[in-house]
């Protein structure tokens, strides 16, 4: 099982855009979104979709990115050790808190972890948007799927 710091470091880093030579995310045609909007799915339907679609694709992405680090990718990799007790609620409080785009904290995260940021932003984010059938984040409205769907806000 991964330690919280290594898990947090691995899953951080998505609030800055860049391209990467990292493994590719499934394209929207490869990533099957849910049959209905996520909010309309029952708990059982969400769990089935996560097991059937999300977990295998995220496992492939993370293992391709770092096979030794993610050799045991599970639901807890993203949802945390207490996932069942928290009913798999996200954001996961154990993940590294992220700073809003454009802040010094966000810039420091990018400087500290450029490859991880590129991987999360260019691979994980679009894959999760497609897999959850979620709209892209719209900065003008503050609506849509963003890094903060999984990561808590830094204080």
TrEMBL record:
Source organism, top-level taxon: Bacteria
GO molecular function: electron transfer activity; heme binding
Disordered: annotated segments: 19-38
Signal peptide, first to last residue: 1-21
PROSITE patterns attached to this UniProt entry: PROKAR_LIPOPROTEIN
Keywords: Signal
Bias kind Low complexity: ranges: 19-33
Protein name per UniProt: Cytochrome c family protein
Origin organism lineage: Bacteria, Pseudomonadati, Myxococcota, Polyangia, Polyangiales
